[in-house]
Amino acid sequence: MPFRRIVIFAAAGAHNLGDEAIVLSEVAFLRERYPDARISVSTYDSASTLVPSEWGIRYFSYFPNGFRRKPVSNVFFFLRTAWEIFRADLVVIGGGGIFYDNEGQSFSKQVFEWRLRTGAARMFQKPIVFFGVGIDVSFSNTKALLSIFRGASAIMVRDEKSAETLSRIGLASKIVPDPAFLVPRVRSNANGWVGARESVVPKMGISLRKGYLKGGDESVRKIVGTVRKSGFEPFFLHHSFHPGNPETDDRAYLRALAEELDVPFTASIAESLDSYRNVSGVVAMRLHAGVLSFVNGIPCFVLSYSRKTDAFIARSGIRHFLPASEFDGREFETRFSEFASEALRAPIFALVEKCDKIREEARTTYEETFYGLERHQK
């Protein structure tokens, strides 16, 4: 039986390009499979979305959302959340990295909030699907996840480490590619192939994340200098524009260096996504800078900072990378030179073809999972 009312709880509304690309991919998949379904998305700010308005998606606020500033509004947020879950035929959670304890946020707060949502779904006897989620928690915090994941109809995770974490508490899961691999391409022509890279001075996007690059600002200067030395025009390809958290806002992180080094930068997630239309390559620390490059047939040099970026390197077969925590300017210059001379001469269709295999793997797994859920609903 097809699902008629679907509610999605993902990392939406924080003005993060990767998270919004995941939501876009999920909604596109679900809208194609269930064209007549009523799809609702919980978000912290609907202005952050990349989903086209003509798709008819409904948005409602997360609870809690600015509780201390808006206590009365949060009463409504709570009731609306409960109502959306009550009316839903299916509750989708994720994807992306929504369970973690190593990025400064309160893990106990995360657990409390997700227990509320999944607890309500179980109380109303709604099927729960975890859609390509990432889990990065310490061993001591693993047991806390059991109350969130127990009783789920399907659990799909995006890497082996996430699957191993759940297996420690007796939960089975399927490993699938990150949902963002299914994001619609922004550089394809009518034939479905990525268009040629056209630029008098080729552009190189640089997507970094605060707090993980050894050497700090000096390493950023080295990256920019190496890119320029290699004949590219660098620009900071920001992915996170979180208005209330300077620790995760790429603009706040690189504003002074952008001015010092005279490097232009993207100013919104829409502009950042559009930049993938005409960039020749990307130096990607942000996971989804790598994924979006790969999807669009754009060579990327990965500065890996976590197991999720390590998993991306392994899945995609990326050859040019360095651990961000071990960054060395001379080694980067040598490896980037190899990247510029080898990867940027690679046929675009070959990159796209490689990605298409991963996209097909993801789509097949998702289709099989939802087909099984539909049969169970009967």
Structural commentary:
This protein has 378 residues and is an alpha/beta fold. It folds into two domains: 5-183 and 358-377, Rossmann fold, CATH 3.40.50; 203-346, Rossmann fold. 42% of the residues lie in helices and 16% in strands. It has twelve helices and 13 strands. It has helices spanning 17-33, 71-87, 107-123, 146-149, 160-167, 216-229, 250-261, 269-275, 287-295, 307-316, 329-342, 348-377, and strands spanning 5-9, 38-43, 58-61, 90-93, 96-100, 128-136, 154-157, 174-175, 203-207, 233-236, 281-284, 300-304, 321-323. Strands 1, 2, 3, 4, 5, 6, 7 and 8 form an eight-stranded parallel sheet that branches. It has a five-stranded parallel sheet with strand order 10-9-11-12-13, with helices on both faces. The longest helix is centred in the C-terminal third of the chain and has 30 residues, at 348-377. The radius of gyration is 21 Å and the shape is globular. The relative contact order is 0.12. Residues 189-198 have low confidence and may be disordered.
CATH 2nd-level architecture of the largest domain: 3-Layer(aba) Sandwich
Number of helices: 12
User: How many runs of DSSP E, i.e. beta strands?
Assistant: 13
Strand content: 15-25%
Assembly type: single chain
Number of domains: 2
Level of helix content?
Answer: 40-55%
Mean pLDDT: 93
Q: Using the coordinates shown, work out and report the CATH topology of the largest domain.
A: Rossmann fold
What is the general shape? globular
Q: Roughly how many Å is the radius of gyration?
A: 21 Å
Cα-to-Cα separation, first versus last residue: 6 Å
Taking the sheet with the most strands, its summary is: 8 strands, parallel
What would you call the structural class? alpha/beta
Low-pLDDT residue spans: 189-198
Order of helices and strands: EHEEHEEHEHEHEEHEHHEHEHEHH
For this structure, what is the CATH class of the largest domain?
Alpha Beta
